[in-house]
Amino acid sequence: MVKRTAQAIWEGTLKGGKGTVEFGGGAFKGNYSFASRFENGTGTNPEELIAAAHAGCFAMALSGVLVENGYSPEKVEVSAKISLEKEGEGFKISASHLDCKATVPGLSERDFLPQAESAKKNCPVSILLSNIPITLDARLEN
Fold first, then answer.
1. Which residues have C-beta within 8 Å of that of residue 8, sequence separation ≥ 6?
2. pTM for the whole thing?
């Protein structure tokens, strides 16, 4: 079993405080705040980190599915958009949208889309997020 670790430090009150997150043995360290999470302030936030995880996981999963089906992907480029919305007195993550473009020689769009859907359904982060709607726009750029 592989275990991964991340750290967060928050100093101060919810609205007036500030924090840092770090992971990857120091490969990434970022600041976050109430403004970067709920407004348009500078810094990162937990939802961006979830989006990065979903995009990265899906890209790898799609590459794996393509190889399993006999294709050699040259490039899989993915962006993920996590939706955070107000619910009652709090907030909830309500959806994830994946946008993918891939370069895969010899593969038709018709054969590509089911493989992309399979990767969306089976990547570990999609499984983790399975309690929210996950949508996908996928296209080939050959």
1. 19, 20, 21, 22
2. 0.94
